[in-house]
């Protein structure tokens, strides 16, 4: 292998740093990569003709990834750097180095003799040729001035596989010999086995050979996602997926997957998929036959596209149904969560806030009042003689009193107020932005309502109850936290009880 030129030295060093050291050491031992027997024989036939031209050699070479890479690396070596632009196609390269050097380079590189691994490389050659033809067609639609270089890059995008097969012949069958293995799966296996996949290996190899930076970058990122604004890169990346679909055991399903990805980027009409498939159907069979790469099956491009579109339609319907089901399941979960959350905040008997929710809300509102210089009041309520009521009439009557009192209390509060059961027969009401006098009036409405309405009936007889109420306002004391505010209201409530029950006391008044 020749060393990288000065232009690529930094890139070569960067790629070497990314490549596992054991892998670069093994690859450095591979002086040559195997080439297609049919291509090598064809070049030998061309060399025997007196009228052979550079164009004849370029046409033969450009269908072989290994030879193409080698010719372009020679053309881009230091000896030929006088040209302003690096070669982007095989024809550019042969023109730069001339007929004699082209022939010498090619013939020194043809190692098809006794190549016992040629059969296992068949999928590699088929994918490379199919991808190159597809990429060239796509580039004619999206970036015509780059179609030649896109063809070359697509042809070389998997040259890392060829290098790995050559460096590790004993493992090639296990890594690459399984039929109908997806390209993505191959890359995952390479990642586990080598610590990187073949796109990085290919880029490193081309950098080592002295290819120009644009080609190296393109190969390194040839297997990235389709989300790119570079049309040449997009044609390259799509070409591999198209080749995989074309060569797949289930081409319609595979092609539908490619079309799904493309539709997410741009309208499929821009890609002229029917034209691409027709071009592949017309171009590939004679090309593969010439190269000795018989196609596994004959593909009907019209039928393939029709079936792929049907698969895509079915997938869309299935996806829509799944999304609908997921949305409904999500709504159900959210509703269930909201219901559970609401239940976790409520006292089941009175349907008012429970103690935990009261204390959490009071803590938050206390802090808010301190930071915004607002006020609030709390009303602490205790039902009088409740233990006597339970003992005389039973717990069922006691529960009825608590439930009715809870509904009555809920009917008296405003939006933004919070009433809850603090424990047993004790209740607490939080009144935001209410001073002590307003809280007193609210408490007195409670006592009047209890005088007017019974809270239960026992043997058809009305049962009236009274309450002792304590009120505390935030602005009436130097309360350090919400606990001290509750204690102040509780103390006022006990003052009411000691004063005869059935009334209201306000802290500090």
Order of helices and strands: HHHHHHHHHHHHHHHHHHEHHEEHEEEHE
End-to-end distance: 98 Å
Biggest β-sheet, characterized?
5 strands, mixed
Low-confidence stretches: 1-7, 110-116
What is the CATH homologous superfamily assignment of the domain at 355-506? Reverse transcriptase/Diguanylate cyclase domain
Named at the architecture level, the CATH assignment of the domain at 355-506 is 2-Layer Sandwich
Helicity, in percent?
Answer: 55-70%
CATH class of the domain at 355-506: Alpha Beta
Q: Tell me the strand order in the biggest sheet.
A: 2-3-1-6-7
How much β-strand is present in the residues? 5-15%
Count of helical stretches? 22
Cα radius of gyration in angstroms = 41 Å
Number-wise, the strands total: 7
Shape: elongated
Oligomer: single chain
Give the class from helix and strand content and strand pairing. Answer: alpha+beta
Instruction: Could you tell me the CATH topology label of the domain at 355-506.
Output: Alpha-Beta Plaits
Provide the residue-averaged pLDDT.
82
Domain GGDEF: 374-509
Protein name: diguanylate cyclase
Domain HDOD: 33-225
Enzyme class: transferase
Question: Mind explaining what this structure looks like?
Answer:
The protein has 509 residues and is α+β, with helices and mostly antiparallel strands. It has a domain at 355-506: 2-Layer Sandwich (Alpha-Beta Plaits). The chain has 22 helices and 7 strands. It has helices at residues 9-18, 21-28, 37-48, 54-61, 65-75, 90-109, 122-142, 147-156, 159-167, 169-176, 183-194, 198-209, 213-220, 231-247, 251-265, 273-290, 301-345, 355-372, 386-393, 395-412, 436-452, 482-498; strands at 376-383, 418-423, 426-432, 456-458, 461-463, 467-473, 504-506. The strands form 2 sheets. The protein has a 5-stranded mixed sheet, with helices on both faces. Strand 2 (418-423) and strand 3 (426-432) form a beta hairpin. Helix 12 (198-209) packs antiparallel against helix 13 (213-220). The chain starts with 8 loop residues before the first helix and ends with a strand. Residues 1-7 and 110-116 have low confidence and may be disordered.
């Amino acid at each position: 292998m020749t060393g990288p030129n000065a232009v690529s030295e930094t890139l070569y060093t960067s790629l070497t740093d990314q490549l596992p050291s054991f892998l670069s050491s093994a690859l450095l031992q591979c002086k040559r990569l195997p080439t297609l027997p049919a291509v090598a024989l064809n070049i030998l036939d061309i060399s025997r003709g007196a009228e052979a031209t550079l164009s004849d050699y370029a046409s033969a070479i450009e269908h072989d990834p290994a030879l193409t890479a080698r010719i372009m690396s020679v053309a881009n070596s230091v000896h030929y750097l006088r040209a302003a632009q690096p070669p982007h196609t095989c024809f550019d390269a042969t023109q730069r180095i001339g007929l004699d050097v082209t022939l010498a380079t090619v013939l020194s590189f043809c190692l098809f003799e006794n190549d016992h691994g040629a059969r296992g490389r068949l999928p590699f050659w088929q994918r490379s040729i199919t991808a190159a033809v597809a990429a060239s067609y796509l580039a004619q639609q999206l970036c015509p001035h780059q179609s030649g270089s896109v063809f070359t890059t697509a042809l070389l995008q998997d040259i890392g596989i060829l290098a790995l097969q050559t460096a590790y012949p004993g493992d090639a069958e296990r890594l690459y010999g399984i039929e109908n293995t997806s390209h993505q799966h191959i890359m995952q296996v390479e990642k586990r086995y080598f610590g990187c996949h073949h796109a990085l290996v290919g880029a490193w190899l081309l950098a080592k050979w002295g290819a120009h930076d644009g080609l190296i970058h393109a190969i390194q990122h040839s297997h990235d996602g389709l989300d790119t604004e570079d049309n040449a890169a997009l044609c390259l990346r799509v070409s591999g997926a198209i080749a995989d679909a074309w060569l797949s055991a289930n081409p319609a399903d595979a092609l539908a997957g490619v079309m799904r990805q493309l539709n997410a980027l741009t309208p499929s009409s821009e890609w002229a998929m029917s034209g691409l498939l027709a071009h592949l159907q017309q171009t590939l069979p004679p090309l593969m036959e010439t190269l000795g790469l018989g196609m596994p099956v004959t593909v009907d491009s019209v039928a393939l596209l029709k079936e792929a579109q049907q698969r895509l339609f079915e997938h869309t319907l299935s996806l829509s149904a799944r999304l609908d089901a997921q949305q409904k399941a999500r709504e159900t979960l959210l509703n269930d969560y909201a219901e559970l959350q609401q239940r976790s905040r409520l006292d089941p008997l009175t349907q008012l806030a429970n103690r935990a929710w009261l204390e959490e809300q009071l803590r938050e509102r206390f802090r808010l009042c301190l930071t915004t210089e607002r006020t609030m009041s709390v009303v602490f309520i205790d039902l009088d003689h409740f233990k006597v009521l339970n003992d005389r009439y039973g717990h069922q009557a006691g529960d009825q009193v608590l439930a009715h009192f809870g509904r009555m209390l809920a009917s008296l509060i405003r939006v933004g107020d919070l009433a809850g059961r603090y424990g047993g027969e004790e209740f607490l009401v939080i009144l935001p932005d209410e001073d002590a006098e307003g809280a007193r009036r609210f408490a007195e409405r409670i006592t009047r309502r209890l005088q007017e309405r019974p809270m239960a009936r026992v043997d058809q007889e009305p049962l009236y109850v009274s309450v002792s109420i304590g009120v505390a306002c935030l602005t009436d004391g130097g309360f350090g936290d919400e606990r001290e505010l509750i204690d102040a209201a509780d103390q006022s409530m006990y003052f009411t009880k000691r004063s005869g029950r059935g009334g209201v006391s306000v802290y500090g008044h």
